[in-house]
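G.,

No rush on this.
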Amino acid sequence: MPFSSLKKRLGNYIAQEGKKPGEGPPDLDQLWRDFNQRLNGLFGGGKNRGSNSGGGGNGGGDMKGAGFTVGAVASVAALVWLASGAFIVQEGQTGVVTTFGKFSHTTPAGFNWRWPYPFQGNEIVNMSQVRTVEVGYRGSAKSKMASEALMLTEDENIIDIQFAVQYKLSDPVKWLYANRDAEDTVRQVAETAIREIVGRSKMDFVLYEGREKVATDTQQLMQAILDRYNSGAQVTNVTMQGVQPPEQVQAAFDDAVKAGQDRERQKNEGQAYANDIVPKARGAAFRLIQEAEAYRAMTVQNATGNADRFKSVLAEYQKAPGVTRDRMYLDTMQQIFANTSKVMVDSKAGSNLLYLPLDKLIAQVAATEGRAASVTPPPPAAVLLPPEPTPDTNRRDSRSRESSRDREGR
């Protein structure tokens, strides 16, 4: 641009700026042409302005420069618009892409691109996050929600239950589009499931031994309902935070619980006493039975042995009565003298004075009585006597005695 033309335009601008108020607005066309000239100078339009120094040629150059500027701005805007379709999905997350509001496809973790608005949109769903729903309270157990916590049991008792449900997402598409409010759906399903489980159980079972079973059954029923609703949620855990009767009857219920505990304690003490006494009595009874069996077996064996011995002696006696009687007499005397003190007296000495060891005899008798008192004697054995001798036997016995006397006389 020539220096004279620039000086002229500057003078006109200064003249317009120096107008007093009310003399008219500044020349907007001139301001627009100055703006286009500056843009042309930036993008290489200075050559055209140098060649067209006349006032008549400035109109065509200005229009051309304006078109170039608009194209550049449009290109930059297009690049920015295309770049707005890029998005990044973190590890453990899933991207859901929609085309004109309808589900199109899912994207894995990493850098992804989709058509910018208004053609396509995207939502990022965290699949690894463990979500929690609280039923019966909010934040802490003290912040109770009576409308959710109070439930009716099978035996028509009211119980106060607070529990938490932990779940993860299994299907992001179902989670986003199958239900209107997915989190509220999970809460309502949890409340419905536990009310059904508690309604089929006794109050004592829910309060004490059945807590774990109630939680397990609630989790299974919740999962079945959520699958039927296509919620895309997977229940991982149900935790019972508090199970108790209502506050209005808490004192009476505590008294009933203490009475039940006392009953169980006394029952356990009685059972322990029975477990201590009954085995001892059974052992004593078994011992007596065994002793009786042993005594019976001993008695039967002794009787059988005595009978067999008697039969054998009878057979020998029938063969030789005198010899058998003498043998029996000698055996009996041997047994008697083997267990008694003996004093040998010489009858041929001719002395009528005998000296007996009385002190030893007395001590021996005392020791024998002591042993007899400490040891229970066995039942007496049956004494087997030989049959009564017949007249023939008496004659044979007299003959044998006479023969023995004859031998002694010789």
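When you get to it, here's the other one too:
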Amino acid sequence: MEETTDSADAGSTRPRRKIPYGRVAYPAIGYKMGSRQMVTTVMNPVTYVGTVGDRENWDPLQGTGTNRKEDKNHRQAIAKYIEETEDYVLNSVLVYYSPNDAEFVADDPENQISMGTLYVRPGAKAKVGDGGHRTSAYGDVIQAHSHGDEVLERLQANGQPVIVVLDDDQARRAQDFTDLQQNAKPLNASIAQSMDRRQAINRMLLEDVLKGGLAPVFEGGKRVEFLSDSPGQLSAKLAGFKTLRYATGTLLIGTSARSSRAWDEAVAVEIATAGHDATLQKMVDFWNGFGALPEVASAMSVDSGVVKLRKTTWLTSANVLYALAAAVHLVTNGTGMTVNGAMKAAATIDFTRAGTTFHGTLVEPATYDEDGNEITKEKALTGRDAWEGAAQKLAAAIRQS
């Protein structure tokens, strides 16, 4: 192919490298990570999808591919997010080009980090190292709107950051993928959910129940753990935001939703159908009823009371809170009983660890021989089956009160 000489810098006699004629040019920033040339550029999503090759799953026998097995639900969730969210945010994707297919020319070759131009051979396809689900999701949205509409126009006007690695060593690509996954630490659920203000349940809990002070037991949020999903044994906090959120949603919809996505959708529909005020009243009545339970009220009135509450009762257990919320939903849904009335009835239930309320559901009791010697210790049981079983027992106790 005929080569052309790129123009020299203004006022400089230093010649620039010759770039093969017809290469596609992308403004970029070049830098090194170790020995390899890295380039960061930005393309609109439509252009980006056209520059990458087919998805490659990892084949350890052939030593090809860098992506995990495709998760169709994850791909669909990203596509829905891109399609429905105008101000969406996606991380950069990592792609690879062979040095034969792409070259970076720095504006200032003597600077280790420099603006410049990425030149790519026409028709060359990048291989996605990290970001396969995002790439496929973009493709799905673009194909669905290929006739042209506001969604496609938005994508054509948006940018997608792309990190390009000029490297054709397949073994290093696979190692990069492993390193990226190992070095990435996803947010715990409590942090992520408390940051997500698009979901109505999160907004209501944060703005109304906690910050609004409508549930004094949480002291404006000071009694809720946001940085981890479960408070430590000596923590003065009652529950993690993840637990608070899931118990509240379970109060609203019960236990019918069996996946996170279905649960989110069902809770959103319930709030939209019932309305903000009616839903908020249920939330407030439940958590104020929780604060009025004798053991909780006693704990909140003394120093280190929550530590003692955690040690002597099950009331700070996430599974027990889920069970109580599910029980209240059972006894109030389609009946004349109110959430407030159900929680007053729940005040008669024995939630202490010394009691037997949760034996056979959330607690496997200790066993003893004929002489009274302990054979096996008491064991707490977890999982959905356990707390749903406990919910049935609590509902029966509430109905009888």
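Residues 7-12 have pLDDT under 50 and may be disordered. The two ends are 88 Å apart (CA to CA).

Enjoy the weekend,
O.
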